[in-house]
Structures are given as structure tokens and as C-alpha cells.
Amino acid sequence: MRGLIAAAALLALAACTPPPAQTTAPACAAPLKPALQVDLYFGAVGEAEWRTFLDQEVTPRFPDGLSVIDAYGQYRNRRGTIERERAKLLVIVVFDAPAHAARVQAIVDSFIRRHGHESVLRVERPVCAGL
Predict the structure, then answer these.
(1) DSSP letters spanning 14-38
(2) What is the per-residue pLDDT across 92-127, written as a single tens digit (0 to 9) for each?
């Protein structure tokens, strides 16, 4: 009887477990190919500063294309205070994963060093993409 109860408990727990995170692109229908979308959320800087950063740090590392979206967001800083600010969302789609990782990290490190921000939020997800 105990074995039956244990088995039932394990089945119930398995039903509550979320599916594992997807780490590879789904099967892509032609002409799309597996790729990785990298989203970087940057805190507010002036438009001229942003343009200079984009021209000097981002574009040389990803000259094939990218998108920049104006955003507004909030986060809890290291002191525990909620900060609200304008932001930039940089979206890059790469086909050469994981070769992109060092280039993305260099962009993040440069932004933090140049502008004194605490961090840059980085999100990566597998996608199907095509040109």
C-alpha cells in the first residue's frame, strides 16, 4: 500500500513540474533557420551618448543588423529602491551561437563602465529566423 501511495505522490508531483526550459530552437520551417535572439535592456542615457555607444561599441560587433526600441521600465536597485526610467531595448538575432557570447558581454561591460550603471538585463531565447 505504501508503494502505491508513493507512486501516486510522485505522479502528482510530476504533473506539477513545469516543462524544462527550451535551450535549442524548435524545428524551423524553410526558409527559416535556428537562431538566437539576444535582448539587452539598457538604462537611460542621453540620445547623443546612446548614439555614440551604438556606433562605437554595438555596430562594429554586430554590423549585419540590430533593432533598438525605446522603452520605459523599472527595477529594484542594490539599495532596495524601485527605480523607474526610460530605457533602450537592443534586439540582436544571431545565427552563430555561441560565438556571439563574448561580443555581447563586451557590449554589456562597456556600457556599465562608460555610464556607471549597475547592470544591463540580458535575455536570450532560441528562435526561427530568416533574411
Answers:
(1) HHHSPPPPP-SPPPPPTT-EEEEEE
(2) 999 987 889 999 999 999 999 999 999 999 999 999
